[in-house]
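User:
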Amino acid sequence: MSVIDIKNVCKTYFMAGGMSQSVLKNVNMTVEKGEFVAIMGPSGAGKSTFMNILGCLDRPTSGSYFLGGKEVSRMNDDELAGVRNKMIGFVFQGFNLLMRRSLADNVALPMVYANDATKEQRYEHAVEMLSMVGLKNYVDRFPNQISGGMQQRVAIARALVNDPEMILADEPTGNLDSKTSDEIMTFLCDLNRDKGITIVLVTHEPDVAAYAKRLVRVVDGCIAYDGPVRDYMENPK
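Assistant: Predicted structure:
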């Protein structure tokens, strides 16, 4: 079963004076449930635009995008907001935590907009998610009381709290040192292997992409490579 099905997606930006810029050109990609895919490419290749479309933060100019079997490419803003909340868990380079709220409150926040659970039920589920990422003893602490690596674990717990179709991780180790980056990437690998969670990772770093099983390389708005990470690392194209 596919989580992502991208068909002939193009993205063109139109500017004043009749000028236009094609950023994505007839992109096709399918991601099956349980895959761990890294999307990599140089600056200006269209990687960020592709990520925005995958995350339902933008729409393609043409083509179709099916997420969990639902066509999302033509949804309006309110519909896309609902899809983002229920079907996608985001992990960003910046942890995007609310500094004046406890870790449990940060993790519970997506549930406020997604379901009718009581405050107590949201808190209990947030504690479960924090326990899963190894932070059971920190639920009532605040983000400024924990390390950067722990903050990213909180962000991962928050991404998982609504049981999304996939985790979309955008440069998740960009603000971390190499040791902590390795810990976070190993944890994402464990989630993928042990829980079967679909992960799509956007990065420009080959050593981060190497943690994935499949690599999609974007160059000049097109997919230049789509295959096993190991094959590409042994013979870069």
